[in-house]
Design goal:
The protein is mainly β. Helices cover about 10% and strands about 45% of the residues.
Length: about 1050
């Protein structure tokens, strides 16, 4: 019957697709044929699926432009075929450009956008009557192919035989198969464009050497459409403009604002004149817009107000205590308090934007004042806002929460294994639930889930200014992926903020709900063997999310991470300067660290190698010679250091090989340079472009000695100093002699806290750009604050003492104004953390930003082309795109630790990757106001022994005290002042809550010198009955 036929056909088609996904293509073709035989083939789509498997197919992979002077090669993927014929035809691009210009000059009634689509010139050649631009055949040859068995794809690189500058249409015709085409573009000239301040900058150079081309004519041809107010006929006029300029002796053209109207779209073309050495050269950009950006090097100069409250969340009928500091933040200001003794107006608004408080205050000598707002018993719940104004000028504000809450009594943590876990092993993590006073939660249910995602461990030596600029902000080294073994012993650079940050969605590994153990814990076992088989070439992070619901139905969430890596630890090496000169002392540092940041004590050997390079055909291989060796052991912090005299110029590598107690031997290394008289780096290898400052940080008055290294000897470099927000000042054109040079830059006060340098170089048909942030930290504006409680734990109601010590960045005692609060740590669970921003970041964490903006005529990509109406080669199944990259011998899906191409970080599944899983917020705390824990704490009230259950207490029995003094804030001081030794001391009695307490201290000095410190203590009893 018909319904059965439909189901049978669907089943056969599904089986064919399953075998395609399994890459069992012969069986897939058999099922397609059977489906055709038994159920027909409407429109022939099934036969096309068969032909894709058994036919001879080929296609080009995407390609960029190629440098002239060497043979261009293209990647080609084929299936089943035994040979292919490659044919190349010259393309007359100049005629194409001339025709487009004439078409626009003719003021067409309506623009034919397809006729002007020169960004996709290949499509124009085969679709829009572009065949008349295809000139004579320049080459044709047949290439024998060796197909893979079982209809698997193979990727090969084909030589085109094309090396002369020009544009070619390359055609690949498979024997008894399909035909594919691609544009092959060989450049000998390049146009680079950069936005200057109210100007547009163009640099014309040789595409192979990067050397500037003086005297080149650059034509700017633009058009725009002008609206015609007519109801019938033409609606637009096409207006054109043409401008011609010549490059100067450094290959530059700088156009002032207005030279090219920014309302036009432009084709920018440079050609060599006949009868000159430049004859035959051609490069063009377009269509492209021209804009004139304003260069704005912003200086930090702000008035800011910081609010501090005694805790982040309150209940109705409680008092909100606050302190405000109003400060001027400017790097070159004197050590004064601009807003001292000035009047300020404070207002407080409810979540409904209703004003409930306003008052005028006068600031003290540090620009600070404090106040209090009693909340009514019927206070609106939600987020309240504090607003501060100085006259009509609003300076800032903050917020706090008001909630009817019951403080969480316990917390949930996930403990990772103490020892590193190797990929492929089984790992156990422990979920623990414990009350804030330390006892475990014994009656509860635990719901947990485990998510896996790829992980890359990046560790950098800790520096003071990490809080400002980020870990590794100073890292001098570059990623030498071309250096043998670097991926094993090297350390990647921190990624610039403008680089795209990609993250794959996590994979759900496990999910369960179990009762908690008698010790308040649950063990979670994770088998990493599957991850090792499918993704054995990367480390992994397992995130464990746990929700614990106790007997009172209160749910608290916690989260933890387990790192599973290929190595138990990693060795990092670094030096204290970016580059050295003969006679300098190299301060080398080393650290052995586990993936989760724990130090490793190890023994080992340090070797200093000098590097020279050996050339073999197109390969340059480093050759290392041991110069000196030392025994080197790490201390308890996993650190080691050594001083080395820089006695001879050259390129060197430090190799530190450490062995831990279990016999794991790991190597870490670092490459650096020592310059001497006449050092030009010609004999050494670098990345395509490197910018290496000599120091981590600078102060006004210093000079940056910036090493500029390139990989192509005698290159030209465009050096841009202090670009900002993608806009530049005119560059210095540097003609290198060799591969390395040094530029000096004066540092001024205006440069704080940072500025940028950027360099552009061109070689072998590519434009290379690198930007480096130069760090000029605000050293005088930071305090170190320590909070030193007299004990780690107190009895309820006991006397407590906290000493505050304040020093400047250099460790000298500092006298200033302090604010101190001590509050119940558990309230941060309700508020989601502190409501006070980190004070150093609040006042001083401002940086200039810049991301490179470069446009060039080499930024072209070309794609596989198929003649209209022809059938292209298709990918078979969900994993068919990976088959060309994998070794068929002994291959199994995901085996051998190979990542499936195009499926990085995903589970081995034919379906799309699962959506990212977000951690749902834990259920809100109970809304009912608790009875200040009194009922729970009465369990220890009657502990005297009784007889017969009803006898009175023995008169000599000790009568226990009933705890009644419960509070969320234990102490608040809005104005503490340190003495000449930088010390202040406070005394107070602890409340009777059994909980953990957070001590927080903020400091302020004249000139907006700021800092903060914190500590934690607990109130607990030795015996508790619940």
């Amino acid at each position: 019957e018909r319904p059965k036929d439909v189901f049978a056909e669907s089943a056969l088609n599904a089986l064919a697709q399953i075998y395609e996904n399994r890459r069992q293509y012969d069986r897939a073709a058999d099922y397609w044929r059977r489906s055709i035989k038994e159920h027909g083939d409407t429109n022939g789509w099934k036969q096309k699926r068969v032909e894709q498997i058994v036919g001879n197919w080929g296609r080009f992979e995407n390609a960029r432009t190629f440098p002239a002077g060497r043979e261009a090669t293209v990647d080609f993927v084929f299936r089943n075929g035994s040979s292919v014929i490659l044919t190349a035809h010259q393309v007359d691009v100049q005629a194409l450009l001339a025709d487009i210009k004439e078409y626009l000059k003719g003021n067409p009634r309506e623009l034919d956008w397809e006729r002007m689509n020169i960004q996709n010139i290949g499509w124009m050649l085969i679709n829009k009557n572009g065949s008349h631009y295809i000139r004579e055949k320049v080459s044709e040859r047949e290439i024998r192919l060796e197909p893979r068995p079982n209809h698997w794809d193979r990727r090969i690189t084909l030589g085109t035989g094309l090396s002369k500058p020009g544009v070619y249409l390359l055609t690949a015709t498979m024997k008894n198969g399909n035909t594919s085409k691609i544009v092959v573009w060989l450049d000998d000239t390049v146009i680079v464009r950069k936005p200057l301040d109210k100007q547009s900058y163009f640099y014309v150079a040789d595409a192979i050497t990067g050397r500037p081309l003086p005297g080149m004519t650059v034509e700017f041809f633009g058009y725009r459409q002008e609206y015609v107010e007519k109801t019938l006929g033409r609606h637009y006029n096409v207006l054109t403009t043409a401008v011609a300029e010549r490059t100067d002796e450094l290959g530059q053209i700088v156009l002032q604002k207005g030279a090219l109207p920014d309302s036009h779209q432009w084709i920018i073309t440079t050609t060599g004149e006949k009868g000159t050495p430049m004859e035959g050269r051609l490069a063009f950009l377009g269509f492209t817009g021209v804009w004139y950006a304003d260069y704005y090097d912003h200086e930090y100069n702000q008035a800011k107000a910081l609010f501090i409250t005694d805790r982040p969340v309150y209940r109705p009928n409680q008092s909100v205590k606050f302190k405000a500091w109003v400060r001027h933040a400017r790097y070159d200001q004197e050590e004064v308090s601009t807003f001292a003794k000035q009047a300020f107006h404070v207002e407080i608004y409810t979540p409904k934007n209703e004003k409930v408080f306003e008052k005028n205050f006068t600031a003290d000598e540090f620009g600070g004042f404090d106040g209090e707002y009693p909340l009514p018993s019927d206070a609106t719940l939600g987020v309240y806002s504090l607003r501060l104004a100085n006259g009509s000028f609003v300076l800032g504000g903050d917020n706090f929460r008001v909630e009817e809450y019951k403080k969480p009594e316990f917390e949930v943590v996930v403990d990772a294994p103490a020892e590193p876990v190797k990929l492929g092993e089984k790992v156990s993590a422990t979920i623990r639930a414990k009350y804030y006073f330390g006892a475990p939660v014994r009656e509860a249910r635990v719901k947990y889930r485990v998510l896996r995602s790829p992980h890359e461990t990046r560790w950098y030596p800790v520096c003071y200014w990490d809080w400002f600029y980020g870990p590794g902000y100073w890292w001098f080294g570059y990623d030498y992926e071309w250096y043998p073994g670097w991926k094993e012993w090297g350390c990647p650079r921190p990624q610039p903020w403008w680089w795209p940050q990609r993250s794959a969605p996590p994979e759900l590994v496990a999910e369960a709900e179990v009762p908690i153990g008698p010790d308040g814990s649950v063990k979670v076992d994770i088998d990493t063997a599957i991850a090792a088989a499918a993704h054995g070439d990367t480390d992994h992070r397992y995130e464990i999310t746990a929700e614990v619901t106790d007997a009172s139905r209160r749910t608290i969430a916690g989260q933890g991470t387990v790192l599973v890596t290929r190595k138990p630890f990693k060795v990092y090496a670094w030096v204290d300067r970016g580059h050295y000169r003969v006679g300098d002392t190299v301060q080398a540092g080393f650290s052995a660290v586990t993936p989760d940041g724990k130090p490793v004590k190890a023994r080992g050997e340090l070797t200093l190698y000098s590097i020279c390079y050996k050339s073999e055909k197109d390969n340059v291989t480093p050759v290392e010679t041991a110069v000196q060796k030392w025994n080197l052991d790490t201390d308890d912090e996993g650190r080691a250091a050594l001083q080395i005299a820089a006695s001879k110029p050259g390129q060197y590598r430090l190799s530190c090989r450490l062995t831990d107690e279990k016999g794991h031997a790991i190597e870490g290394g670092y490459v650096f340079c020592v310059a001497g008289d006449g050092f030009d780096g010609r004999d050494y290898r670098f990345n395509d472009i490197e910018l290496v400052p000599d120091k981590k940080e600078y102060q006004p008055g210093d000079r940056v000695r910036l090493a500029i290294n390139v990989d192509k000897p005698d290159s030209s470099v465009l050096l841009f100093v202090r670009p900002a927000n993608g806009v530049y000042r005119q560059p210095e054109v540097m003609m290198l002699k060799g591969k390395s040079t040094c530029a000096e830059i004066e540092v001024t006060t205006k440069d704080m806290p940072n500025f940028f340098v950027e360099a552009v170089t061109i070689h072998d048909g590519r434009v290379f750009t690198d930007a480096r942030e130069i760090v000029v930290p605000p050293e005088k504006r930071v305090l170190n604050i320590e909070a030193r409680p007299s004990a780690e734990s107190y009895r309820p109601g006991a006397a407590a003492k906290v000493q505050v010590r304040v020093t400047d960045l250099h460790g000298k005692p500092f006298r200033g104004s302090m604010v101190m609060t001590v509050y119940d740590k558990s309230v941060e669970y309700i508020s989601g953390g502190s409501n006070v921003p980190e004070i150093k970041s609040f006042f001083w964490k401002w940086r200039r930003h810049h991301s490179p903006q470069t446009e060039s005529s080499l930024d072209r990509w070309f794609f596989n082309l198929t003649v209209p109406g022809a059938e292209p080669m298709q990918t078979i199944g969900v994993f068919g795109g990976a088959s060309a990259d994998e070794n068929i011998q002994g291959f199994e899906l995901g085996g051998g630790g190979r990542r499936l191409r195009g499926f990085k970080g995903r589970a081995a599944s034919g379906s799309s990757a699962m959506d990212s899983l977000e951690l749902a917020a834990a259920p809100a705390a109970a809304a009912a106001f608790d009875k200040q824990e009194a009922e729970l704490e009465q369990a220890d009230r009657k502990n005297a022994l009784r007889e017969d259950g009803g006898q009175e207490e023995h008169p000599s029995a000790v009568q226990p005290a009933v705890r009644k003094d419960f509070a969320d804030t234990a102490f608040w001081a809005a104005a503490l002042t340190t003495d000449e030794n930088g010390l202040a001391e406070v005394n107070f009695n602890m409340p009777e809550n059994l909980t953990a307490w957070k001590i927080r201290v903020w400091g302020m000095g004249h000139g907006t010198i700021v800092g903060e410190g914190s500590a934690e203590v607990a109130t607990s009893k030795n015996l508790l009955l619940r």
